[in-house]
What does this fold into?
Amino acid sequence: KYKLVIQVHGCYWHRHNGCKLAYNPKSRVEFWQKKFSENVSRDKKVEQKLASLGYRVSTIWECEISDMNSLKDRIHLILNGISSHKQLILNQ
It folds into this structure.
């Protein structure tokens, strides 16, 4: 009915921009940069594939799930088709 995918991403593994949980390890820096880059690249490919199949894709970040009222509001916005850009503006 909705043709909607809601992804819940870990901020660390999927590199949530500007998030304190998406810190960079101090050891094995090259290894981690490569790993994170591959994760982000794969995420983009998956989102593009889902979009090409007609799905809307929304991402909820790990740091956003601790406040249940905000999470409920966010899911409500997603289900009602409000774009990610508008959600970001509302969440700031």
Summary: The longest strand covers residues 4-9.
